[in-house]
């Protein structure tokens, strides 16, 4: 389309979002349409030798762009939004009456330095609208078929609690190389940690499950900051920390679970180290287990809690599953191990003697709307087995809703020949398939999963979940999606308003009380 003396481009051109290169030099264009933001596959754009007096800010949305040529136009400035072009290798601007500072930067320091300058000087956009709270009532009063058949009754009470799950992006992982579209000041940990704390306090969840918390920040920042707000924490770093010295260990990340001490007391804590479990059973000692699973040091933190007023027991599992899409089999095996461990721990928890020295609603103040406990029982509930205990399994599963991990958790079983095992042999897991008894549902399953929980230029999708035991819990509310209009001008997180590449997921639950 070069040399045609075009004065404008047809709007239909911008529907071709499969285009990887657009050559429009030697025309008579005085501007480029903001609709160019639709061409999200572009790697090359050549608009040299036109009559352009400005470039649209929307060019900054083309994060795959590697070569941008606007030689010999009439540009006096560049939009700071071009700072989002973190993959840009060549920016050709010679032959334009640009300001001396811009010309000097690109001539002396090159394209990457100019992009960084534009990125850090870009004005902060208006903040998004607050995420809406969505009321859900689909589960209330519900009962699993298996419990009906076992002649147990199930009724709701007013005992509720909220749970947040949030991968906060570890300081060590937040590098310019990985997040080149983020202003350096917004990537700085001192800025992000305050923003994270603001989010945690804004929602005030009764249970907070964080991933990618390193030892240093847990000990030096989160413990004290959240203690001041009435929380106690349980934390374990990834397995590699066990082989490190005290100083090096401080930079290893892991999972941290916090709970309000006014509501819960900690009965027991457990760390699940996925690279250690295979050594406990000969049947799990397969080649794939040694070479693929045991080389990863992901962990889960399990907290056994008891409601101080009602005596209701809770199991809260907080996990960060391996990230690499090429290791779908490892993700499945790690989650299968987690479910095995939860069931074993739950059965042990169920056998503990119940408390009898409980406060009743008539002798203590109560709260409402996420954390209320107004049971009239004088003694705590008893549990015939671990599957009856209210259970939350949440974390960064690094698995999308169409994955084997999602199918396994939601259905309770998965065949050993499932494609996500990648034809590897994992002993009983692939010989017999994987199963669990917890009747899990995603907290967002009644609404449809969110559009995303992880938002970067290269990936936008759901990988973070709060799973709950639907035979003992009902989801009654959840935090809604991010403002869609805001996202039209944002290439990815983190940024000025979002401290991590993940967004928190949050849900409220009501206890479905069993009476035997």
TrEMBL record:
Classification via InterPro entries: CCR4/nocturin_mRNA_transcr, Endo/exonu/phosph_ase_sf, Endo/exonuclease/phosphatase, Leu-rich_rpt, Leu-rich_rpt_typical-subtyp, LRR_dom_sf
Span list, region Disordered: 360-383
Entry keyword set: Cytoplasm, Endonuclease, Exonuclease, Hydrolase, Leucine-rich repeat, Magnesium, Metal-binding, Nuclease, Nucleus, Repeat, RNA-binding, Transcription, Transcription regulation
Record bears the keyword DNA repair: no
Subcellular location: Cytoplasm; Nucleus
Pfam families from the UniProt entry: Exo_endo_phos
The keyword Cytoplasm is annotated on this UniProt entry: yes
GO terms under cellular component: cytoplasm; nucleus
Domain Endonuclease/exonuclease/phosphatase: from-to ranges: 165-502
Broad class of enzyme this protein falls into: hydrolase
EC number: 3.1.13.4
Co-factor requirement: Mg(2+)
CDD domains with a match to the protein in the record: Deadenylase_CCR4
Catalytic activity: Exonucleolytic cleavage of poly(A) to 5'-AMP
GO MF annotations, alphabetized: endonuclease activity; metal ion binding; poly(A)-specific ribonuclease activity; RNA binding
Family named by the database record: Belongs to the CCR4/nocturin family.
Stated name of the protein: CCR4-Not complex 3'-5'-exoribonuclease subunit Ccr4
The species this protein was found in: Phakopsora pachyrhizi
Taxonomic path: Eukaryota, Fungi, Dikarya, Basidiomycota, Pucciniomycotina
